[in-house]
Amino acid sequence: MLKKIAILFVIVFTLNSCVSKKVYQELETKFNKLRTSNSELIQEKDDLLAVKKGLESDLTSLNVQLKELKTKKTILENEYASLQNKFKNLQDSYGVLSTQSSKELAEQSQKNQELLAQLEEKERKLVEESLRLEKLQTELSLRAEEVDELQSLINAKEAQMQQLKNAISNALHNFEGNGLTVVHKNGKIYVSMENKLLFDSGSWAVGSEGKKAVEQLASVLSENSDINVLIEGHTDNVPYTGSTLIDNWDLSVKRATAIVRILKSKGVDPTQITAAGRSEFVPIDSNSTSEGKAKNRRIEIILAPNLDEISKLLKD
């Protein structure tokens, strides 16, 4: 009897080690998936919503698995109880048969051994499923916390961007409708200034009215150090004919950097700012009319929230 107990202990110890390794591999795989999605989440806040949806899908899937495991555990417990009852009955029978022939005793002993092996196997499976159930419950709880924290950060960023949009609209209300628009969409703020407000034809020198508008915008941005600022210069499709620059690419970049310099001079941290020239290749209207060309000649100032906090959460 002592020998059997020792063998059972070794089997349970070995199986526990196998389970830990398996769980470790599953967790490592899920961690790699989270790390892969991190690079996408940093690109756009929009992608963070997709990640949130994916996490919610994972939670649903884990809840389904949890329900299945609970059902399986109940079945195993019932089978285990039934086998224990059978084993007790066989033990009682074995006492009665102890007076019978050696052949009958051997047969009964063999049945007892087989039943004991079945019991040990069921017990092993029950322990394994219990461990899996515990791990899934822990992971489910952690995932739920991650989703809640991610949603809180997203909501905070949305509220911050709406407050920023309101502050910018208030600062530039004298210019809105006169070649300047402020729009909040997709988690970002787009400040569009037509060239008639900023530049003369073929020039990248900012006029007095345009400079005033940019300076008023800078007064807001300088107080929001965790906002990324992208300045995009756009032209129509009329080729540049001056002698100083090469083409519309050069002109769009020059106009973007002219805006950057005004922002920097008015206290906006240069590490927040990126300048880009898009030339004629991202029109917002047709270049077949003078009105469409006027809309296409513009500066787009795109304000996006800093996503470092969300990125850190996903890495963790």
TrEMBL record:
It comes from the Bacteria. PROSITE patterns: OMPA_2 (PS51123). One of its GO terms (cellular component) is membrane. InterPro entries: Bact_OuterMem_StrucFunc, OmpA-like, OmpA-like_sf. Gene3D superfamilies: 1.10.287.1490, OmpA-like domain. Residues 186-307 form the OmpA-like domain. Keywords: Coiled coil, Membrane. Residues 24-174 form a coiled coil. Signal peptide: none annotated. SUPFAM superfamilies: OmpA-like. It holds the Pfam family OmpA. The keyword Membrane applies. This is Chemotaxis protein MotB. It comes from Lutibacter flavus.
